[in-house]
Amino acid sequence: MNSTVDIRELNERIKLESAFTEIITLEMNKVIIGQKKLVESLLIGLLSDGHILLEGVPGLAKTLAISTLAQTIDAGFNRIQFTPDLLPADIVGTMIYSQKKELFEVKKGPIFTNFILADEINRAPAKVQSALLEAMQEKQVTIGDTTHKLPIPFLVLATQNPIEQEGTYPLPEAQMDRFMLKAVINYPLIEEEKLIMRQNLTKDFPFANKVVSAAEIVKAREVLKEVYLDEKIERYIVDIVFATRFPEQYKLSELKEMIAYGGSPRASISLAKAAKAYAFIKRRGYVIPEDVRAVCHDVLRHRIGITYQAEAENITSVDIIDQILNTIEVP
Predict the structure, then answer these.
(1) Per CATH, is 20-199+212-220 categorized as 3.40.50.300?
(2) Which of 68, 75, 69 is nearest to 215 (CA)?
(3) What's the predicted TM-score (pTM) here?
(4) Distance (Å, rounded) from C-alpha 272 to C-alpha 267?
(5) For residue 276, is pLDDT > 60?
């Protein structure tokens, strides 16, 4: 793969295969104004088969963005509104007795679809959140004594509201780690908000057309594996993750007291996958350091535990990532 001919051929192929990402983006931009980073994060998760957690205050189009993405793909989509009284059976399904057949039958829940919008996931108790764990990791669900495979592609897109604490149940670390990306959504700019207001007051609200099939997404995921990741970039990714565990080995001793725990090997895998997907979206057949840096915050922000000392000094996981990226040598 070191020869320039191979790279050139791969580049041309990826350019052709990734053309549909621009079509999806154009369709989403008809409905979602601004939020370029959010649209990119959703595409990265979609292409690299990684679940996404979106965090932002109410009204920032988190739910609209996810449902719009689902509209552009000819695949199944279900929305589950998480509430404190939700039960695991409400998500995965249950066994129902049929008097006619005189036996128990499986009634599948809304999780049996391609795209799941878990709206306000932190409103449901831990028992319900854990019902998603098997589905997210194993891509299967057990009802009674039978295991059922989930459709392909299967993607969980969850939202959570960071400002309310009453009536919410923070996601446990084990489940947070299941999310490949955690994207934080900010307020739009003044010009963008004027357009948003105008769009919502028009007679015909725009909608996204179906432009891609589920089969095309599955095919793109296979092509994504061919995106070239050089050994130097691999080393760069591993150094970033190791710096979250052993900062003192990377001339970052001051972070040792700030980090409670660093990223797991799943962080390295997710960072490599997300960097490949970002290169794919940029219609490139190889990964460059800028791709890694572009996705680093979304991949690591929920995988770094901060200490009480860091909280007292108002240091967040994002500040820690910034310091690591500014210190580690770029290949």
Answers:
(1) yes
(2) 75
(3) 0.87
(4) 9
(5) yes
